[in-house]
């Protein structure tokens, strides 16, 4: 696990964004951990989160011209990451979408810079991939090219229902379907490494290991 990944998991736990216990996921599964990027809701934690996004994107080596944040969480993430990138010497434009088209003023559904060139989509996680599908459609409709998807945490979790699980995770399906890389600041393997490093978290480690064995890729 890289130092940046270790730092991000520790930061998420300290901020109360990554929690351990019993949580029901959107897919109806009982998960031993829960990650809610919406809880990065003050200036200090959002600023630090943006630093992780920016450095991860730079380290990935992906070529890009601008950022796109799908409504709603992606709006804050893309704008904050653009600020962090500028501070690192990469001044990058960004855009985001409205859920409903505006029929006055500038109109349309896209706010910010015009979509052009190679566009990185920024979101918190990928579950069903709906947000990515809609984002890719908007980017391509504007004549631009989706270059990558950048997320905070890859759960490395197979989709589908128990008994008929997909062989691929939601992240792998997105990458395969659209032919673009999905970059994560950290993933389930990094989270497990964090739990292994702290003996006091042994109970949570066992629960995550069992969940990973059942649903992981």
Describe what this molecule looks like in 3D.
By secondary structure, the chain is an alpha/beta fold. 41% of the residues lie in helices and 29% in strands. The chain is built from seven helices and ten strands. It has helices spanning 3-14, 43-60, 73-87, 130-141, 170-178, 188-197, 202-215; strands at residues 18-24, 30-35, 66-69, 93-102, 108-112, 118-122, 145-154, 158-161, 164-169, 182-187. The strands form three sheets. The protein has a six-stranded mixed β-sheet with strand order 5-4-3-6-7-10, with helices on both faces. The protein has a two-stranded antiparallel sheet with strand order 1-2. Helix 1 packs across helix 6. The mean pLDDT is 91.
Note the overall shape.
globular
Q: Give the N-to-C terminal Cα separation.
A: 18 Å
Please indicate the percent range of residues in DSSP E strands (runs of 2 or more). 25-35%
> For the report, how would you describe the main beta sheet?
6 strands, mixed
The ordered H/E elements are HEEHEHEEEHEEEHEHH
Q: What is the rounded Rg?
A: 17 Å
């Amino acid at each position: 696990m890289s130092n940046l990944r270790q730092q991000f998991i520790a930061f998420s736990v300290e901020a109360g964004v990554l929690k351990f216990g019993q949580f029901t996921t959107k897919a109806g599964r009982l998960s031993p951990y829960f990650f809610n990027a919406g809880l990065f809701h003050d200036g200090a934690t959002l600023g630090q989160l943006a630093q992780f996004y920016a450095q991860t994107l730079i380290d990935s080596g992906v070529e890009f011209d601008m950022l796109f944040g799908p409504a709603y969480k992606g709006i804050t993430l893309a704008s904050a990451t653009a600020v962090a990138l500028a501070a690192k010497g990469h001044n990058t434009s960004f855009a985001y979408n409205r859920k409903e088209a505006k029929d006055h003023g500038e109109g349309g559904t896209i706010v910010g810079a015009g979509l052009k060139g190679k566009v990185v989509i920024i979101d918190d996680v990928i579950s069903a991939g709906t947000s990515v599908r809609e984002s890719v459609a908007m980017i391509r409709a504007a004549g631009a090219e989706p270059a990558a998807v950048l997320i905070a945490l890859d759960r490395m979790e197979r989709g589908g229902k128990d008994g008929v699980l997909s062989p691929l995770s939601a992240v792998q399906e997105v990458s395969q379907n659209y032919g673009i890389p999905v970059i994560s600041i950290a993933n389930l393997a990094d989270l497990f490494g964090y739990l292994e490093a702290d003996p006091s978290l042994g109970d949570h480690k066992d629960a995550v290991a069992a969940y990973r064995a059942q649903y992981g890729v």
